[in-house]
Amino acid sequence: MRSILHGMAAGAAGTTALNAATYTDMTARARPASDTPQQTVEAIEQRLPASIPGDGDQHQNRVAGLGSLSGIVTGVGIGAVAGLLRRTGLRLSFPVGAALTGLGAMAATDGSMAALRVSDPRTWSSTDWLSDVVPHLIYGAVTWAVLQALDGPGSA
User: Fold this and answer.
1) Where are the alpha helices (H) located in the chain, listed in sequence order?
2) What pLDDT digit, counting tens, does each position of 94-130 carry?
3) For 141, which of 82, 98, 99, 127 could close a Cys bridge (C-beta 3.0–4.6 Å)?
4) CB-CB neighbours of 115 under 10 Å
5) Residues 101 and 82: beta-carbon distance below 8 Å
6) CB contact at 8 A, 100 and 147
7) How many angstroms separate the CA atoms of 129 and 152, rounded?
8) Which region, left, alpha or beta, applies to residue 47 given φ > 0 means left and ψ of -120 to 50 means alpha?
9) The model scores a pTM over 0.90
């Protein structure tokens, strides 16, 4: 249980860093927030027998909230998986562990968007890829660093 909690804490820290990197990019380039999290929630809703309650703005506000929450759940969940993997004895160097954790989170989000036909990463520009990969690598670095710190000295 300790390894899952450590992973969740590390994933929460990584998610905060990912969000900070994303908001910094939005500020620097004056770009709008992505609406793909909301589109993903709507695509999932279309496949479920139930729907998100509310009409008009109420519904859209709930979808927006669920889109943001889904990013937190993904980040904390990937951290928990990383914590479990470390518990099984997986001890990767910092660069490898950070990169795999970040790219794993990116694959989870981008893969689900592609599977739901919300976005097609094959059509993304290099700028689109860069604005996706950099925050995810930052997520991976912070998540892996926190996991290593929580595991104590000499836990590479």
Assistant:
1) 2-29, 36-47, 57-87, 94-115, 126-151
2) 999 999 999 999 999 999 999 999 999 999 999 999 9
3) 98
4) 10
5) yes
6) no
7) 35
8) alpha
9) yes
